[in-house]
Amino acid sequence: MPPSQRRVLIIGGSFSGLAAGRDLGSHYLVTIIDAKEYFEYTPGVLRAYVKPKHLDALTFTLQPVIETRMGCKYIWGEVKELNGAEKTATYKPIFTSERETIDFDYCIIAAGCNFGPFHKWGESLWFPTIHEDARPEGSWPHLDERYLEGRRRHVLEEFNFLKSLNDKSATCLVVGAGFIGVEWATEIQHFFPRVKLTIIDFLPQPLGPLPASAAKYCEKYMNKVGIKQFYNTKYDAKNPEFWKSIELPDGVDKEYVCIGVKASNYFMPPETLSEKGPGGGGWILMDMSLAVKTREGKPWGYDEKGFPRIYAVGDCNYSCVEEPGKKPDEWPIPPIPKISYPGEEMCTVACKNIENIDKMLYNRRKRHCCGSKITVQNMHWPWGAGMFATSLGPDDACFVAGANWKKNSGLMCVWGQVCAVQKEFIEATKTDECAYGIIGRGIWYFVHHTPVRRVLIIGGSFSGLAAGRDLGSHYLAAPTVRRGDDSGQVTIIDAKEFRESEYFEYTPGILRAYVKPKHLDALTFTLQPVIETRMGCKYIWGEVKELNGAEKTATYKPIFTSERETIDFDYCIIAAGCNFGPFHKWGESLWFPTIHEEARPEGSWPHLDERYLEGRRRHVLEEFNFLKSLHDKSATVLVVGAGFIGVEWATEIRHFFPRVKLTIIDFLPQPLGPLPATAAKYCEKYMNKVGIKQFYNTKYDAKNPEFWKSIDMVSGPDKEYVCIGVKASNYFMPKETLSEKGPGGGGWILMNQNLSVKTRDGKLWGADDKGFPRIYAVGDCNYGCIEEAGKKPDDWPLPPIPKISYPGEEMCIVACTNIEKIDRLLFQSKTVDCCGDPLKVWDMHWPWGAGMFATSLGPDDACFVAGANWQKNSGLMCVWGQVCAVQKEFIEASKTDECAYGFIGRCIWYFVHHTPVRRVLIIGGSFSGLAAGRDLGSHYLVTIIDAKEYFEYTPGVLRAYVKPKHLDALTFTLQPVIETRMGCKFIWGEVKELNAEQKTATYKPIFTTERETIDFDYCIIAAGCNFGPFHKWGESLWFPTIHEDARPEGSWPHLDERYLEGRRRHVLEEFNFLKSLHDKSATCLVVGAGFIGVEWATEIQHFFPRVKLTIIDFLPQPLGPLPATAAKYCEKYMNKVGIKQFYNTKYDAKNPEFWKSIDLPNGPDKEYVCIGVKASNYFMPKETLSEKGPGGGGWILMNQNLSVKTRDGKLWGADEKGFPRIYAVGDCNYGCIEEAGKKPDDWPIPPIPKISYPGEEMCIVACTNIEKTDKLLFQSKTVDCCGDPLKVWDMHWPWGAGMFATSLGPDDACFVAGANWQKNSGLMCVWGQVCAVQKEFIEASKTDECAYGFIGRCIWYFVHHTPVHLFGGGPRWGY
Prior knowledge:
Layout: E1 7-11, H1 15-24, E2 29-34, E3 38-40, H2 45-50, H3 55-58, E4 59-61, H4 62-69, E5 73-83, E6 88-93, E7 100-103, E8 106-109, H5 148-167, E9 171-175, H6 179-191, E10 196-200, H7 212-224, E11 228-230, H8 240-245, E12 254-257, E13 310-312, H9 340-362, E14 388-391, E15 397-401, E16 411-415, H10 416-434, H11 438-448, E17 454-458, H12 462-471, E18 476-477, E19 491-496, E20 500-501, E21 503-505, H13 510-515, H14 520-523, E22 524-526, H15 527-534, E23 538-548, E24 553-558, E25 565-568, E26 571-574, H16 613-632, E27 636-640, H17 644-656, E28 661-665, H18 677-689, E29 693-695, H19 705-710, E30 719-722, E31 775-777, H20 805-827, E32 853-856, E33 862-866, E34 876-880, H21 881-899, H22 903-913, E35 919-923, H23 927-936, E36 941-946, E37 950-952, H24 957-962, H25 967-970, E38 971-973, H26 974-981, E39 985-995, E40 1000-1005, E41 1012-1015, E42 1018-1021, H27 1060-1079, E43 1083-1087, H28 1091-1103, E44 1108-1112, H29 1124-1136, E45 1140-1142, H30 1152-1157, E46 1166-1169, E47 1222-1224, H31 1252-1274, E48 1300-1303, E49 1309-1313, ...
Parallel strand pairs: 1-2, 1-8, 2-5, 8-13, 9-10, 9-12, 10-11, 17-18, 17-19, 17-26, 19-20, 19-23, 26-31, 27-28, 27-30, 28-29, 35-36, 35-42, 36-39, 42-47, 43-44, 43-46, 44-45
Antiparallel strand pairs: 3-4, 5-6, 6-7, 14-15, 15-16, 21-22, 23-24, 24-25, 32-33, 33-34, 37-38, 39-40, 40-41, 48-49, 49-50
Helix pairs in contact: 1-9, 10-11, 12-20, 21-22, 23-31, 32-33
């Protein structure tokens, strides 16, 4: 019988029933039967009662959707009896009084439930009364809610009743403060605010078992809107004391009971229904596969071959599979809430089981196309069952994710108006999906439908959990052969409650736990609930004993049995880690628990089973008490090894047990081994300070008395701690896959560059019949490098990688990517990716994060090294002191949260490993530099270097000099913005040289006298310029003096404006000087009536009105080339406030006639020169700088695509393929592209003014060109997503370069738009106080954008990221 002739009956046409129809409708003869004619989105129906027209958005008629769109059969009728033996259903159609019978091959019961546990038939407002026998005994028998019109009339009746309650300010009691009760109360309050509402619950908080954060949020909201709340209060309507206790002694005008559910499985035989459960029982009993069973546990409705044919899914079933004598945590399926998500998930499992049984029965197939055995799958506890969105009226809501069957579990992760919009989006798209809409199905399909390949991950620490996070949503668990099922999703097997034990432990932080035991709780969590509940994978607590590459099976020993079991897989990732004691047979150390079965009897603490979290905890406490005893007797302790583990251990003991006499030794000449000397000296200095003796270039030789004399321990120490080296623990792997050499004597898993396992003779191990790798080794368990005979490590394909967590997770991403690519090639018949590039397996690289080391020096100090590599003493110590200690605690907390599948941790760390690895250096941290960081920071390893520690909003700095507190609104410290918010790296230093050939920049950090070097793949120069053309270094008030060589020759050498405090003091000094001018009614000359000069003169006049001001310019009007309307407006304003003006006047300070001509025969008391700019590109080679231009030249020459060029027109800094790698943007570049013999109007780029807008526009072009070059070079792409050839874009004259806002004091301004390179072009379109407010808005929002503020970015993002250019010189469809 072909599949299309098998008949499937689905009872129920709501979420689960329609999901089953969508899944099976194209393969089977599907009939859906429902007692009502319509679908209703139940979670949103409360809104309909207070806003009746909303019902239309929640409902649709079933027949056209099921029959026309889905291609199934629809019966409008009520099922009266289901016969499991005969496989028939008796039902009563809506249109007749006689019953009819339908037979089936398979049946899915998705009949839902009712919501009124105190009513015989479960009557409630939330669900229509649709059962024939229930209507006569209901509260609204005159309404037939089986019809959509009947439901609509019921909604209108209730709406009118609520309206009458509102009109008379009636009292109303809502019984039950679960999410239904809370939603109902807040909906009434919002739409009928005069109703006096009270809500009660017998629990101590609203939202029942959901987390306290969500409960408090709802409680606070209800308090705010005046809903009285009483918790720990049992509903007892007949007791007068109850009414008094809730301040309603006379009762209420209306009660709504919003608690509980009630079964409505009236068509099922009693032996298939539970005797207990919510609402008094009556729920359909099911086994793990969701097949219906009887009370005795016997199968019901099975065929003669023992295959299940009838399944119960969604709200109608018992919702859990119990196991006698165990708690819900240990049940095969803990209690599942009766909401739509788990119902649809159950439906997917039931449909898959029907398809699998069908293949076995009718197609006589025993295996899937990928070779795995066809079996009936078991249901799991669905992760989406822990998601709850609770409305608080139409404008507020809260969303909880990660809840499970435990009380107060989960996390409130979205709230407020954003959450209200999210809930409306879910409602609209889910309703569309149920109506078989293409948008809804597109959005929701893969939530329940994932591929079925099985991935086994050996190891549940950093790398293993990272693999689970990456693959868990796409692949299924590897089923155990003994059980013969597909129970779960990606399977993670670990021998402890963390790896081969039951728990995860944040190893880098474990040293602190030994000296502060309660810290262990912050470092550990039990793996099972995280892996199975949050990640949706399968977890096995056991030790792998053997891995078979040929058969693709793993033999393991579960913790709970003495027998071994076998699990098969399609892919395997080995992330088994390593041990840390190279001198011990099993690699025993304090830093990692003893978890291998054979290792425990031969260890130093065999009485403790560290596979259990409690065993680990007791070990920590034992060591703590031992250290305490050493402290009490002032014992001597020797720490062998001054690597970061040794240094951390010594300083932790010193801090918490200060009476212990500590000595640390190392055979190397400094602590921290190969890390840079700056970090080594920092640690050495700290240990000297706290009294730890140190001996370097000293080899450990415990048996030699001379050794002990050499370290001042003639009698030896009371305790030794060996803190050196690692040891492999790959006992389950065959010898031919393990190295013969390496740290700790070898035994590391050999791998190819794509991380697939290989043998000693270089052959691929565990490949399939087509030669694709299926087994990968990542993290600390593998050999850690790819050698090449006859070459130095520098030239190896993969130089040695340190055994720390970051590179392990990076390897995991590469392995997961390779699994996904192979899967597409093998099972999805794909040969190219979405961009048309060939699918291929990726090779591993040396991960940049492998060079980051954070070393604690007790709890209050630390140092952080970045940029280290396989070479000795490489890297840079970039953070230290208490800031670094806090940074290390942040990393520890957020990484542990990420491993525990926490939302915050995953948000913080996701893009650390899911990014390209190209490095971008940005020189300059002002407008353009920060814009480049925002654009590239999420895709590249971005470093921003700036000579000052702060950002300053330059266009507003004039106001700060006359109103110093305004400086705070214009500035922020760069480091926290760039590193914390943007996720880039910040270096506070001055670039001294840029080398295009080597792609390096030499810079001098603020904190040292020595220069350092940083290399890059791409560079954006956004170094800005200075504003004083008559001064050697371009000194002016408008921009701080930040160059090292400029400060001694400047006018304020006593102030270091590289520091924000130095800038602040300069502002205060100038303010006090202006104040002294004001006090003596001094004269002041402003030279230059451009927008800077006009602003400066009017600011002084407003705040210091007694200063006698004169302004001059050699042009015939103020504002230079801007339009006459704006010039006249400013001229008129300055006349009004008494500022003398002289135009067509050349500044000549040495000529007495000049002074007479401007009515200042004796000269002024103070002059301010406000004209021109000056280049400050001191780090660039001369051949890249212009010989002419404003301020005498020195501007960086660039091509039209903004790449740097030389004076003879050659590309500077190109790679071997001729692609540009270095770009100059903003005020530092030449500002135009000339063409000989032509006027500026005809140049490729006419002169661009040196203001912030065009700088940011150039930055966007440069960033786009970097991304396109990157795709061409590193991603082997030649076309974009639309099929157009990838090419480098040219810059245009930006339209926004013609916008100028000129302040005239704080209360007036004028705004010009549309200006260009032609004189007097543009239009003054805003002026007066409105324009002053506009300028303040621009200032505040732009500063916020630069500070990576959400509001500022929202306002300004599309100004430069315009998707369509309707005017200006940019490309029509954006960059």
